[in-house]
Model the fold of this input.
Amino acid sequence: MKIIVDAMGGDNAPAEIVKGALAANRDTGVEIVLVGREEAVRKAAADCGAASLPAGVSIVNATEVIEICDDPATAFKHKKDSSITVGLNMLKSGEGDAFVSAGSTGALLAAATLLVKRIRGIRRAAMCPVIPTAGGGAVLIDCGANAACTAEYLLQFAYLGNFYVKQVLGIPNPRVGLLNIGAEPSKGDDLRRETYDLLQRSHEAGRLNFVGNIEAKEAIKGGCDVIVTDGFSGNVMLKTIEGVGSYLGREVKGMFLKSLKTKVAALLMKDGLREFKTKLDPDRVGGTAFLGISRPVIKAHGSSGAAAIANAIGQAVTVAESGIIQEIEAHIEDMKTE
Amino acid sequence: MKIIVDAMGGDNAPAEIVKGALAANRDTGVEIVLVGREEAVRKAAADCGAASLPAGVSIVNATEVIEICDDPATAFKHKKDSSITVGLNMLKSGEGDAFVSAGSTGALLAAATLLVKRIRGIRRAAMCPVIPTAGGGAVLIDCGANAACTAEYLLQFAYLGNFYVKQVLGIPNPRVGLLNIGAEPSKGDDLRRETYDLLQRSHEAGRLNFVGNIEAKEAIKGGCDVIVTDGFSGNVMLKTIEGVGSYLGREVKGMFLKSLKTKVAALLMKDGLREFKTKLDPDRVGGTAFLGISRPVIKAHGSSGAAAIANAIGQAVTVAESGIIQEIEAHIEDMKTE
Done:
């Protein structure tokens, strides 16, 4: 298994990216191709004590970097020697099994769609992070790639999420819910009602385990394994989870720092607090796959540190080994509306 | 000040509603009219030790109750003697200064719109709960009344929220943000881009303090005072906050119940924990106003207990005294698009 890593993407590139990739190689034996400015990448590796690269790690030079200020839709074209463009072209031509980047989401999505291409029959690629729920976690699809959606897109997201949960997370018969503002089939806007009908038909045909509309609160309680929605409200849900998590995390911390008495309490709670912090840690999962692209592409959080990158590489290996793309291709006819 | 209270609405009616209304009367001297099945309301009052009603509290008999299974759009017509229909007709004819109900949101909104009517020129009434933020709180408008919106609706929501924060919460020059999936003006779908232009024009005319697009995470960090969005994504945001709050609240509780050591820590943390619990308590605010209706209507949470009802009645008094409706009427021309 060989993972192509964008060494230049994200707030902490290249240092943390290279560190995380070296850790993944050391701990799991996965082969790594680091794509980026060779000198900077070599220096980052040397700073991690790898003045000469370990076996299974190589560098491919790419002299340009796509920046946040570049137009996401066209950056990969204008910067042909950027780490994203070079890396995705390598993925396309089979020089690696998956691509991992912490760079600009928009640029990565546009480049993946236009260079690597979508699976034939898939209308839009979607992002599907695993969000924390009382049930252990659920996939939220889409969560920002597509602000405006049709019912057919949402139907396809349901199948994509279903196969991800089945093939990558290993949960049989995933419960698919349509994010809505009430449980009854009549709830929401036209897009939701139209999508409800399509999902219900897939359910009746035995193709999806559609559990109906689900409110955000019930989803977080663990009411389903796949939360289907448009990229706008999915992004609102994801960012709200992050926002409330970090807000309450700070409140809990403040509560323990208040006085000598509470600081003693913090000592007594050490293990529990560490566990609580882990639950709120966005680095734990690592990244989100771009589902619907014909080869595995994983987007890591822009603020990823080395641990998050190592996790994203692990996730890339799982996705590449899962056979999810073949599974999507085999069921493409089920995902089409007339 | 006289508040009309739907004694039959909500999961805990009439017992908790009557208890909360009696408490509000006792603690603040506000006049209360309880609308509902007289016998049941009298019994609930007697159970609170008010076998004969205190001064300033009266009952108006209404023999029917709108249930969750009734069609929200038409229930108030079919059940002419329901507590919602009777109470709103009283509000309309000036027999009270505001109406408070914990009953069906949809039925209350439909009845308020068709019986009490919207302010002339307002396209849609909206719900505007105060959500917790690191900055102390922000108004989220709309959050469920209107699943499908136009840019003009959203422009009006911005003004409605602006006046609510100014007149009811007493914050001068409220910062108005448009909920979006990125900060740049080009982000989001057509609805967002069109709304951005309208809000920007209002900003340039000195009518609104528009701070631009805001992501959910930044909004929870306290980046604005009014969060403008459609009722679908607003509801997703609100329910996500509730869901994550109750999930993390349970996690914190579990962390303290783990062992003897952590239980000792809980004792040391008693005050801080009580404060933390208060921050997560949905009953604290009480209810959400239906902004855009020509008289004050407050929707309390369906699960409201007595304390939440008392808070919602306090909120109704504040709204009725604030002059917000006159303020909206005076600025209605600013809220129109050609």
